[in-house]
Specification:
With 153 residues, the protein is mainly α. It has four helices and three strands; from the N terminus they run βαββααα. β2 and β3 form a beta hairpin.
């Protein structure tokens, strides 16, 4: 049996929903048997599970990846990441370029351009901006390919 080294809590975080302090816990505390990586940790509201607020941490530094979020906000952040990933996967721009573009569209400072810090409103704005960009991209590319076919004929 291997001994697991206990991780040290590096941050003092408070839950934005109930005001309790967040505690550094192995991800297994929340995910149970669904935990895919035993090395993952979360900051979890000390009121968990009645207060369903938590955030993942960076493995090397054990610093939070954003602010504590309840289920609704976590879902919105996932949707925002997916919308931004569609832009990158479609080849519209690189990941770095997409973050700079979004930072400018949302009028954010570089240090504030992290989806893990976003509110539901910012997530909705991110999704809206990404969807609008993708619509424009598809429309432009469709027109270009139609023009190319017409010219070739």
């Amino acid at each position: 049996m291997t001994k697991t080294k206990k991780k040290k809590q590096t941050e003092k975080l408070y839950c934005p929903y109930c005001g309790r302090m967040a505690v550094l816990r192995p991800a297994k505390h929340v995910y149970g048997s669904r935990n895919l990586d035993s090395g993952n940790y979360l900051y979890v509201c000390s009121g968990y599970p009645s207060c369903d607020s938590y955030i993942g941490v960076h493995k090397k530094t054990m610093r939070p990846m954003g602010t504590l979020a309840n289920g609704d906000l976590r879902h919105k952040r996932i949707e925002a990441h997916r919308a931004l990933n569609k832009v990158v996967q479609a080849g519209v721009m690189t990941k770095h370029g997409a973050y700079i573009w979004l930072q400018n569209r949302l009028c954010l400072r570089e240090k504030d351009m992290h989806i893990g810090m976003f509110s539901e409103y910012r997530c909705e704005e991110t999704i809206r901006e990404c969807n609008a960009l993708m619509e424009q991209y598809v429309k432009t590319n469709r027109t270009s390919s139609c023009e190319k076919k017409t010219m070739a004929a």
